């Protein structure tokens, strides 16, 4: 792990992934075929990319039952407890419609309406992600979304991971289809004979999923274009090197392009943490992935003091930020850019990934400068309410018409004045 002085470092923020020309062309072709051929294209792409010839796309009741047989009852209890924590956190985010009435009789307000339907993409590949089910489904349910449908790529045996199915059943999702990749995104966006389209697509995936989400955006809404995972640990001399190293590796094992960074004013901690990273790597099952991440996107930045360390953190705007210093709360107001902030030595990032309650779908690639974690607002829309009274139009009609004419919009002005004229005729 590289130990670098701040003035010699290059920002580890990366641009949002655009993909190669061939990847973009492949995604466009897949989308067009799904739009034109529906289920036929889904079956063909699933055989081509996932290596399985399915007889049916939809997960059956028998598959749910088998999933429960494969998962230890104690683990099911943990999933339920995590779901309860996540549900409780997101219930607190709910907003209500509101209305105000002015003395002139005008009523103004905002009406909150949940989306009708949401599609959740749960990735497959090198790991199974029951936590993705909980984190994407529960805020949608808290928002009041009635139809939640899930897609996920099947294994070569034509199944989905038992943990994913159990998590889905525990939160009440039963409409699940064994289809992934760009074809799964296209099916959610445009629909097929079997899969009815949705209004919004959420959930992480590989580059093909990300590019497909970008292509369908506008026809449907999406959550974000997520990049590789990131963690920054802001620590001082009170932090323990073995814990810091373990936290860095908890993100590095996600992806070869994941970023794991220590920012500290302590040269001693930087050196000890770097040694610990190398030591702990040796026994990691995903050693190859984590080692590549640390080699290419890992670093320890040594700053002159804590104030400079905070500036580095805000420049990086990380997805996950751990603050392991003597008094974490003392600098919380100084942290302006981070997707999730973990305070203190016991708030390891996996606590938020799985169990505490806040959402783990977070802005990456420095986009925490202007965006937020997935939340209840992402599954609702707001309608403005305007009810003008006779008194209000009499008092303000001339002003409104004048402003319309300032913009050269005569019909706008007349639409107001016709009401004033009618009133004068009476």
What does this molecule look like?
With 426 residues, the chain is α/β, with parallel strands linked by helices. The chain folds into 3 domains: 21-222, Nitrogenase molybdenum iron protein domain (Rossmann fold, 3-Layer(aba) Sandwich), CATH 3.40.50.1980; 227-370, Rossmann fold (3-Layer(aba) Sandwich), CATH 3.40.50; 389-425, no CATH class. 44% of the residues lie in helices and 16% in strands. The protein has 15 helices and 14 strands. The protein has helices spanning 21-37, 39-50, 61-70, 73-91, 130-143, 162-170, 181-190, 207-216, 241-252, 267-281, 287-297, 306-316, 349-354, 390-406, 410-425, and strands at 2-5, 98-101, 107-114, 117-121, 147-151, 175-177, 200-202, 221-222, 230-235, 259-264, 298-302, 320-324, 340-343, 380-387. The strands form 3 sheets. The protein has a 6-stranded parallel β-sheet, sandwiched between helices. It has a 5-stranded parallel β-sheet with strand order 6-5-4-7-8, with helices on both faces. A 3-stranded antiparallel β-sheet has the order 2-3-14, with no helix packed on it. A hairpin with a 5-residue loop joins strand 2 (98-101) and strand 3. Helix 1 packs across helix 7 and helix 14 (390-406) runs antiparallel to helix 15. The longest helix has 19 residues, at 73-91. The N and C termini lie far apart (83 Å). It is an enzyme of class 1 (oxidoreductase). Its cofactor is Zn(2+). Zn(2+) binds at residues 251, 254, 353, 412. Catalyzes the sequential NAD-dependent oxidations of L-histidinol to L-histidinaldehyde and then to L-histidine. Keywords: Amino-acid biosynthesis, Histidine biosynthesis, Metal-binding, NAD, Oxidoreductase, Zinc.
């Amino acid at each position: 792990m590289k130990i670098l002085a701040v003035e010699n470092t290059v920002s580890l923020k990366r641009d949002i992934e655009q993909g190669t020309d061939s990847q973009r062309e492949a995604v466009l072709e897949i989308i067009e075929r799904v739009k034109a051929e529906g289920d036929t294209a889904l079956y063909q792409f699933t055989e081509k990319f996932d290596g399985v010839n399915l007889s049916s796309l939809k997960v059956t009741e028998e598959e749910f039952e088998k999933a429960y047989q494969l998962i230890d009852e104690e683990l099911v209890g943990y999933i339920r407890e995590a779901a309860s924590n996540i549900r409780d956190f997101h219930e607190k985010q709910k907003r209500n419609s509101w209305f105000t009435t002015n003395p002139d009789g005008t009523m103004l307000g905002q009406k909150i309406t949940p989306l009708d339907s949401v599609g959740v993409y749960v990735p497959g590949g090198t790991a199974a992600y029951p936590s993705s089910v909980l984190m994407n489904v529960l805020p949608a349910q808290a928002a009041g979304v009635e139809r939640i449908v899930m897609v996920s790529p099947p294994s070569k045996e034509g199944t989905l991971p038992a943990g994913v199915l159990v998590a889905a059943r525990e939160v009440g999702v039963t409409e699940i289809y064994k289809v992934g990749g760009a074809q799964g995104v296209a099916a959610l966006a445009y629909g097929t004979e079997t899969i009815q389209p949705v209004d919004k697509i959420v959930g992480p995936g590989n580059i093909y999923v990300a590019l497909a989400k970008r292509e369908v955006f506008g026809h449907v809404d999406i959550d974000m274009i997520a990049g590789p995972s990131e963690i920054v640990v802001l620590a001082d001399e009170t932090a323990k090197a073995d814990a810091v190293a373990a936290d860095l590796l908890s993100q590095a094992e996600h992806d070869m392009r994941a970023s794991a960074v220590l920012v500290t004013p302590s040269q001693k901690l930087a050196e000890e943490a770097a040694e610990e990273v190398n030591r702990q790597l040796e026994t990691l099952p995903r050693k190859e992935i984590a080692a590549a991440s640390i080699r290419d996107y890992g670093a320890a930045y040594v700053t002159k003091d804590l104030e400079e360390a905070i500036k580095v953190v805000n420049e990086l705007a990380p997805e996950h930020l751990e603050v392991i210093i003597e008094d974490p709360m003392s600098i919380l107001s100084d942290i302006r850019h981070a997707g999730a902030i973990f305070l203190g030595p016991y708030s390891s990032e996996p606590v938020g990934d799985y169990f505490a309650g806040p959402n783990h779908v977070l802005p990456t690639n420095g986009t925490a400068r202007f965006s937020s974690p997935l939340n209840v607002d992402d599954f609702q829309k707001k309608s403005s309410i305007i009810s003008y009274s006779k008194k209000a139009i009499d008092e303000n009609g001339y002003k409104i018409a004048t402003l319309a004419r300032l913009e050269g919009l005569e019909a706008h002005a007349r639409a107001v004045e016709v009401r004033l004229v009618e009133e004068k005729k009476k």
